[in-house]
């Protein structure tokens, strides 16, 4: 149908059925307005508006920030930047040597102005004694910020039917049980003090199903839904709980060593996350309360996936990407085996 024919048809419909024509026109106008408004919200939150000031959660006032998985990568960077913001830091992980190095770096950067402590725990072991010891320490501190960063993915992309059972159990134990136990330990104190910030590190794999990382993807979906539910429970106590929706970041877990427009360094990612606390950025108006996609390129990707409707294509793209990654990892292992 030509443009002239379409205009003629619409004109006739408007004359014969003015009520129907008006309803359709109104629906179209509302859809356009909603799309424009949503785009404006995402743009302003991602590039213009600042997040909540960290002083609202006790920065420079003696409060503590607790960071799990703090030995390297994103966890280490959260510890460094929260210390620079004026929080005392409790570093939680299993490697004492690496945590000690992070503590020394914090002391050097802050000239000893903040206190740093170490708590050793291997979340994969789910050891009651170690968990109780951590809970005892947490209950004795004025915790203003909790970063649930500890996490585990698959050793390489693998179809679920071929995944080693122990790997599945470790991923569930660390990503779900670890997050629950630490959050449950700090929350009563936050409620009593009427302030707190909980950041649960999530993944795009929890928002869009990730083939060949099925168990990891499922645990990150849990983190997203858990965060939304908990955020509404504790909002009345002036506590902010957010799920940080994260795409690739340079880290050991991602096996990416070079940064790019879509892959920030840990420092760049954490800087964006702490500057956008309380906002949604790319996750705005997508039916995911409590979710924040802070880094600008991740925010745009999130917006496109959920607004333009590319989720099915993204699943297919991720599947192809993971098959390629698996092939490259297996070839590398073969080369290394031949050298031995």
UniProtKB/TrEMBL annotation:
BP term (GO), one: fatty acid elongation
Q: Is Oxidoreductase found in the keyword set?
A: yes
Please list the GO terms describing molecular function: ketoreductase activity; very-long-chain 3-oxoacyl-CoA reductase activity
| Lipid metabolism keyword on record | yes
Query: Which PROSITE patterns does its entry note?
Result: ADH_SHORT (PS00061)
One of this protein's Pfam families, by short name? adh_short
Kindly state which reaction or reactions the protein catalyses.
a very-long-chain (3R)-3-hydroxyacyl-CoA + NADP(+) = a very-long-chain 3-oxoacyl-CoA + NADPH + H(+)
Gene Ontology CC, one term: endoplasmic reticulum membrane
Q: Binding of substrate: at which residues? A: 203
Q: Which UniProt keywords apply?
A: Endoplasmic reticulum, Fatty acid biosynthesis, Fatty acid metabolism, Lipid biosynthesis, Lipid metabolism, Membrane, NADP, Oxidoreductase, Transmembrane, Transmembrane helix
| UniProt-listed Gene3D superfamilies | NAD(P)-binding Rossmann-like Domain (3.40.50.720)
What broad class of enzyme is this? Answer: oxidoreductase
Active site location: 216
Instruction: Give the record's pathway.
Output: Lipid metabolism; fatty acid biosynthesis
Q: What is its main location?
A: endoplasmic reticulum
Protein EC: 1.1.1.330
Write out the annotated subcellular location: Endoplasmic reticulum membrane
Q: Which residues cross the membrane?
A: 19-37
Q: How does the entry describe its membrane topology?
A: Single-pass membrane protein
Q: What does this protein do?
A: Component of the microsomal membrane bound fatty acid elongation system, which produces the 26-carbon very long-chain fatty acids (VLCFA) from palmitate. Catalyzes the reduction of the 3-ketoacyl-CoA intermediate that is formed in each cycle of fatty acid elongation. VLCFAs serve as precursors for ceramide and sphingolipids.
Q: Which family does this protein fall into?
A: Belongs to the short-chain dehydrogenases/reductases (SDR) family.
- Cite the PANTHER family for this sequence: HYDROXYSTEROID DEHYDROGENASE-LIKE PROTEIN 1 (PTHR43086:SF2), VERY-LONG-CHAIN 3-OXOOACYL-COA REDUCTASE (PTHR43086)
**What is the protein name for this chain?**
Very-long-chain 3-oxoacyl-CoA reductase
């Amino acid at each position: 149908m030509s443009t002239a024919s379409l205009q003629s048809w619409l004109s006739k419909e408007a004359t014969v059925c003015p009520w129907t024509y008006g309803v359709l026109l109104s629906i179209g106008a509302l859809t356009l307005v909603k799309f424009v408004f949503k785009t404006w919200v995402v743009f302003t939150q991602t590039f213009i508006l600042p997040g909540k000031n960290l002083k609202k959660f006790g920065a420079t006032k003696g409060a503590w920030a607790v960071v799990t998985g703090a030995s390297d990568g994103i966890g280490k960077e959260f510890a460094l930047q929260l210390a620079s913001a004026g929080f005392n830091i409790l570093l939680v992980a299993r490697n004492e040597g690496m945590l000690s190095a992070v503590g020394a770096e914090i002391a050097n950067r802050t000239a000893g102005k903040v206190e740093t402590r170490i708590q050793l725990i291997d979340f994969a072991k789910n050891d009651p004694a170690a968990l109780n010891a951590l809970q005892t320490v947490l209950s004795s501190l004025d915790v203003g910020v909790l970063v649930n960063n500890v996490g585990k993915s698959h050793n390489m992309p693998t179809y679920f039917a071929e995944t080693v059972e122990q790997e599945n159990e470790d991923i569930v134990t660390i990503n779900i049980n670890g997050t629950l136990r630490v959050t449950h330990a700090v929350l009563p104190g936050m409620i009593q003090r009427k302030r707190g910030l909980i950041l649960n590190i999530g993944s795009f794999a929890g928002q869009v199903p990730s083939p060949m990382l099925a168990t990891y993807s499922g645990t990150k979906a849990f983190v997203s839904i858990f965060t939304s539910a908990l955020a509404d429970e504790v909002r009345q106590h002036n506590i902010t709980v957010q799920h940080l929706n994260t795409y690739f970041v340079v880290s050991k877990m991602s096996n990416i060593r070079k940064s790019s427009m879509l892959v920030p360094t840990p420092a760049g990612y954490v800087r964006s996350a702490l500057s956008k606390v309380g906002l949604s950025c790319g996750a705005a108006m997508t039916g995911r309360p409590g979710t924040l996609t802070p880094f600008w390129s991740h925010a745009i990707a999130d917006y496109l996936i959920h607004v333009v409707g590319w989720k099915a294509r993204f699943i297919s793209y991720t599947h192809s990407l993971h098959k390629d990654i698996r092939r490259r990892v297996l070839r590398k292992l073969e080369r290394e085996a031949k050298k031995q």
